[in-house]
Write a structure and sequence with these properties.
The protein is of the alpha+beta class and 289 residues long. The protein folds into 3 domains: 88 residues, no CATH class; 108 residues, Tetrahydropterin Synthase, Chain A; 60 residues. It is 45% helix and 22% strand. The strands form 3 sheets. Strands 7, 8, 9 and 10 form a 4-stranded antiparallel β-sheet that branches. The chain has a 3-stranded antiparallel β-sheet with strand order 1-5-2. α4 crosses α5.
C-alpha cells in the first residue's frame, strides 16, 4: 500500500460559505416569517442550520511536517499534507502522523562479537516517516516497530565484526567507525522499508567489553601497547647505533675491532632502550686496558 493524496479543500473559503448559510437561516427563522411570508419559511431556516452543522465535522488542521491519514468506512482514502485549515468529507476519520525527523538511543545490548567475546553495544538512530499509508496500515505500531527492529539490526551487525582487529585491514567495531555505521544504517533500513520509514543516520553510541572480561581485555590492550612502544624504541635505538658506528668509521675517529664494536653496541642499546637514566662509567685507562 502506497501513499496517495486525499481529497481536501481550503477550509477558510468553505467556512465563509457556512457562515453565509447560518445568517440566511437566522434571517428565515426570525425575520422573514414576520414579513408576511408563508410559515414554512421558518422550517427552511431550521433545515439550513442542520445542513450547516453536519459539514462542520469535516474541518481539521494540518501542522507543518505532518500528515492526516483519511479513512472512509474503513478504506484508505488518502493522506493530506497541505498545512493549514482544511475540509474533507465529514464521514472520513482522520489520524495524525508526524513527518518530522526523530531519534532515539537503543538500550545497551549484551552480545557476542564475531570472535565470541561478550560486549556491550548501543546506537543512536535518526529516522522519519516518508510514507504515511505504510506506516499506518502495514505495521501495527510503527514507533514500537522502529525500536525493536533497530535493536535487532544492531545485534546482527555486532555479531558480524570483532571488537578489535588483530589483522591489518580487517574491519572491527572499534577501529572502522564509518564503515560500521553505514552497515548498521543499511541493516536497519532493510528491516524498516516496509513500514514507510527512512533511516537518516545510525551511529554507535556505546561500545565496551562486558564486565566479566573487561579487566582481562584491558590487560591485553595494555600489553599490546607496551609491545608496540618497545618495538618503536628498539627500532629507533638500532638506527641510532648504526648511525654512530658509521660516523666513527667514515670520520676515522677510532678504529674498533668486532669485539669492541659488539661491546659498544650493547652499551648503546642499554642506554637508549632503558626506562631510567643510566650512570655512565668513564674509562680512564688505555685503549686496550
Amino acid at each position: 500500500m502506497n501513499e496517495r493524496n486525499g481529497f481536501s479543500i481550503a477550509g477558510i473559503p468553505f467556512i465563509v460559505v457556512c457562515l453565509v448559510l447560518v445568517f440566511v437561516g437566522i434571517g428565515l427563522f426570525f425575520h422573514l416569517s414576520a414579513s408576511g411570508l408563508p410559515p414554512w419559511t421558518g422550517a427552511i431556516g431550521i433545515v439550513l442550520f442542520a445542513v450547516v452543522g453536519w459539514p462542520l465535522k469535516g474541518f481539521f488542521q494540518v501542522a507543518p511536517n505532518e500528515g492526516q491519514v483519511l479513512q472512509l468506512f474503513g478504506r484508505y482514502a488518502g493522506t493530506v499534507r497541505q498545512e493549514g485549515l482544511r475540509w474533507t468529507n465529514p464521514f472520513c476519520t482522520r489520524r495524525r502522523v508526524s513527518l518530522r525527523t526523530r531519534n532515539f538511543e537503543s538500550s545497551k545490548l549484551k552480545v557476542n562479537d564475531s570472535d565470541g567475546n561478550p560486549i556491550e553495544i548501543a546506537a543512536v538512530v535518526v529516522w522519519q516517516v516518508i510514507d504515511t499509508a505504510e506506516a499506518t496500515f502495514c505495521v501495527d505500531d510503527y514507533e514500537n516497530f522502529v525500536h525493536i527492529q533497530s535493536e535487532s539490526a544492531l545485534r546482527q551487525m555486532a555479531q558480524s565484526y570483532p571488537y578489535d582487529a588483530h589483522d591489518d585491514g580487517k574491519p572491527s567495531l572499534r577501529s572502522h567507525g564509518e564503515e560500521i555505521n553505514n552497515h548498521l544504517r543499511d541493516e536497519i533500513q532493510a528491516r524498516l522499508g516496509k513500514a514507510g520509514v527512512q533511516i537518516s543516520e545510525a551511529r554507535i553510541s556505546h561500545l565496551a567489553y562486558a564486565q566479566e572480561i573487561a579487566q582481562a581485555m584491558l590487560q591485553r590492550q595494555q600489553a599490546g601497547a607496551i609491545i608496540a612502544a618497545r618495538g618503536r624504541i628498539v627500532e629507533g635505538a638500532v638506527g641510532m647505533v648504526a648511525m654512530a658506528l658509521e660516523k666513527l668509521r667514515t670520520q676515522g675517529v677510532v678504529d674498533l675491532d668486532e669485539e669492541r664494536k659488539a661491546a659498544m653496541v650493547s652499551n648503546l642499546l642499554v642506554v637508549l632502550c632503558g626506562e631510567r637514566g643510566t650512570q655512565p662509567v668513564v674509562n680512564a685507562g688505555t685503549l686496550h686496558n
